[in-house]
Amino acid sequence: MAELTANQLPAAHDDHGHMSAEEHNENMKLGMWLYLASEIVIFSIMIVGYVLFRINQPDVVELAHGKLGVGLVTANTFVLLASSFFMVMGLRAMQNGNRAGMLRWIGLTALGGIVFLGGQYIEYSELAHLGIVLGYDTSSIWSTFGMRFYAPTFFHGAHVFVGVLWALEVMRRGAKGRYDDNPIGIEMFGLYWHFVDVVWIMLFTLIYLV
């Protein structure tokens, strides 16, 4: 069998031994998936905690459902889902060489995240007035529910906040032409933002609808 020449071998590195763009991109994606896997573990623990509380205290959960602002949260959910679409369009624009379009779409993604956080703040304020707060008081049913409710929803909100900052950073770098030749940075942000959306769909369904 004839041996492959150097030109026929896949080029993983350049002549100086540097990592190729393709290999760099694959490594970044692997790193992001590993990070998201660790986040899945944390969210899963919180979700299991809520499920166990729901099984053991069904009456408390039913009462709480009457106080949760499902209408506001539903609108907030649509905003977050729309922001995921904006992110996809931003990546597509950059892949087509449309830097200005990318900036507009990613800007809308960040705006969607900000609106979501604003809606969550309003919801938390209303729940606080109703006595559903984060604390530990075994004599208060709302305290015990609040612990299970705020832990996953606030943790998710923190991820949205980080995502907004990340989107703004993507815009800053994109404006300087950072992604003109390789939009991998936008793809990494997209993986994170889609993860945030999927987690929220699970939380929204479990806590507000079921």
List keywords for this structure.
6 helices, 210 residues, Four Helix Bundle (Hemerythrin (Met), subunit A), mainly alpha
Sequence-ordered SSE layout with sheet pairings:
Blueprint: H1 21-56, H2 58-65, H3 70-95, H4 99-129, H5 141-175, H6 184-209
Helix pairs in contact: 1-2, 1-5, 1-6, 3-4, 3-6, 4-5, 5-6
Structure notes:
By secondary structure, the protein is mainly α. It has a single domain, classed as Up-down Bundle (Four Helix Bundle (Hemerythrin (Met), subunit A)). Helix content is 77%, strand content 0%. The protein has 6 helices and no strands. Helix 1 packs parallel to helix 6 and helix 3 runs antiparallel to helix 6. The longest helix is centred in the N-terminal third of the chain and has 36 residues. It is elongated and about 60 Å long. The termini are far apart. The N terminus is likely disordered.
Concise structural overview:
Helix 3 (70-95) packs antiparallel against helix 4 (99-129). This protein has 210 residues and is mostly helical.
**CATH topology value:** Four Helix Bundle (Hemerythrin (Met), subunit A)
Strand segment tally: 0
Order of helices and strands: HHHHHH
Name of the CATH homologous superfamily: Cytochrome c oxidase, subunit III, four-helix bundle
Q: Stretches where pLDDT falls below 50 for ≥5 residues? A: 1-16
What is the first-to-last residue Cα distance? Answer: 64 Å
Kindly name the structural category. mainly alpha
What count of domains describes the coordinates?
Answer: 1
